[in-house]
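Issue 218. Parser rejects a valid record. Input:
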Amino acid sequence: QVQLVESGGGLVQPGGSLNLSCAPSGSIFNIDTMGWYRQAPNEERDLVANITRAYRTNYADSVKGRFTISRDNAKNTVYLQMNNLKPEDTAVYYCKQRTGWPTYYTYWGQGTQVTVSS
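Output the parser choked on:
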């Protein structure tokens, strides 16, 4: 069973930066949309950003201008560069990859903790 493996989380001070990455443990074919979600304690899992195979991006209003999502189609890897981090960015970050037609299968990562604190 292929799994998504995330890395790059950790503890950072306010104003700092982190770069998350997510790659599959095996081969996945025909990946369409890749994205990052986050879930803070006692809250729902919300979209942070996503990117299509054609590199079209979409961001949550709270991260626009601070976060940048990118992807490497050859490696089936998605990245999230997070700058000017704020305490309210603290959450578990999950990556998601979805295949396109005809399978439309969704893979999720196990989550990586991001903590922004002084």
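Fixed in the parser; the record now loads. The chain has a mean pLDDT of 96.
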